[in-house]
Amino acid sequence: MPSRLKILFLPRWYPNRNDPMPGLFIRKQAEGLARLCDVAVIYVHPEPHCPNKYEVEFSEENEVRVLTVYYRVPGGKSGWFGGLVKLYRFYRANFRALKSIRAFDPDVVHAHILTRTAVVAYWVSRQWKKPFMVSEHWSRYFPENNTYQGFLRKLVTRFVVKKACAIITVSELLQRSMLKEKLRNSRYINIPNVVETGIFTPSGQKRSHRKKRMIHVSCFEDKSKNISGFLRSVRTLSLKRNDFECHMIGVGPDFEKMMRYAGELGLDEQTVIFHGLKQGNDLLDSYRSADFLVLSSRYETFGTVVVEAMSCGLPVVATSVGIIPEILNAGNGICVDPGNEEELAAAINGMLDLFATYDPQEIRKFVVDKFSKEKVADSMFELYQEFVS
Question: What is the mean pLDDT of residues 107-120?
Answer without folding.
Answer: 97
